Amino acid sequence: MRFLGIDLGTGSLKLAIVDEDGREIASSSAAYPVTSAQPGWAETTVDAWYRALVGAASRLPANEREAVGGIGFSGQMHGVVPAAADGRALRAAMLWPDTRARDLLDAWRAPQPNPVAPGMAGPLLRWLVSNEPRIADATRRALQPKDWLRVKLGGAFVSDASDSCATALAKPSGEWDDALIDTLGLPRAWFAPLAASHERGGALSDEAAAELGLRAGIALAVGAGDTPCAALGSGLSSDGDALLTTGTGGQIVVMCADAPAPVHGLHTYRAATPAWYRMAAMQNVGVALEAVRGWLGYASWREAYDDAFAANASASVSFLPYLSGERSPWMNPDARGGWLGLGLDDTRATMMRAAFEGVAFALRAGLDAIRANGTPLDSMRLAGGGSVDARWRQLLADALRVELHAVDCPNAATRGAAILGGIAAGHWRIDDLASLAPTSTLVATPRADASLDARLARFIDLYRRAEDWFAIRNESA
Length: 477
Known about the structure:
It is built from 15 helices and 20 strands. It is an alpha/beta fold. Helix 9 (226-233) crosses helix 14 (412-424) and helix 10 runs antiparallel to helix 12 (348-371). 52% of the residues are buried. Residues 4-233 form the Carbohydrate kinase FGGY N-terminal domain. Belongs to the FGGY kinase family.
């Protein structure tokens, strides 16, 4: 028997088929754009998601698809799909980098157990009610991205605690906060009942099976958010296990047996298992580097890497990567990015190198917030498509001051989703997860570098100095 994992990411959808021992044996992917019809918006149509799924599925071996007996889901977190009663989307999905609701956060009065960002479902739905009343009136379900996809494939109207707890509409446990939902003027019926991530959440419909080349009636797991799925697929199971993921954004996840105390700038969420995790979530990792690569005219990532890491790090040039605001640790949607300290003798290689360092320093700021609250991390597992170049891995290890152990599976979140599918199908039990952990390989050991430390200190100082300018710019915009 085989199990299919579907990871509905921000800029691409990934599929992986794993065997009965949890080993990946086939994978495929398809990309789609994140559009911005107005400044600060971040959207993708659900039709783009579904076309990507059908296209990626067609590239999996037919004989492996025929053997699939369970499907699990991993999805980008925080955003929302307003939908009709039958699951039909009423507009494009609003996604986590979206900042249109940044002036509507007053309903979440401090202190909150978790930071509230404009791109979370709560603020976005509050914006929808005020600005698109016709769509709000027609809405019957407010679906998380992976839940919309499961419903599209024939699944039930249900969600899980790992996704609900990150909507700014639920308690840290994931249970919907009925009082807050009522205060916001949102219908409680919009929000799905909760089930465990590994529970069965429906079966694959005849129509979807025909389009995907799969057997009808396959068990559909409820699924989980992409970060907890990546933790699951990477083998995090014990208290204190840590993972760094680098994709469009970046996350540092530390597993916790019990709910950790709330900390400003950090997130405390439910895992895809009964455990918890503490997380620093940085918005500007791959999305910032991809923007810089385009601005500087590099035709390929290899060219960008080669040019950047052949250049000496500049003692004067810094890059703030906050192109779409930032969450951990600053929680500042008004933050913006750019190079500082450029001179006439600087080149695009200098600028690309500074961009890599700026992203690494932004990750370090999030990690330092975790360290400051009682977790002295010196080793982490590493996953994510944005962390395959050895030179980039070494810079991350040096900047973060941690050993990095690359997880020996290419698609951690997708693998985690497939494991959930296997549990829903009855092949594994939740108690089997520790035995399914993949191996990992030490890929980078931190090196002492006083000049890097000095550039990090300048980076933090520049951000602090720019905070007032960000606020003034927003007020005058």
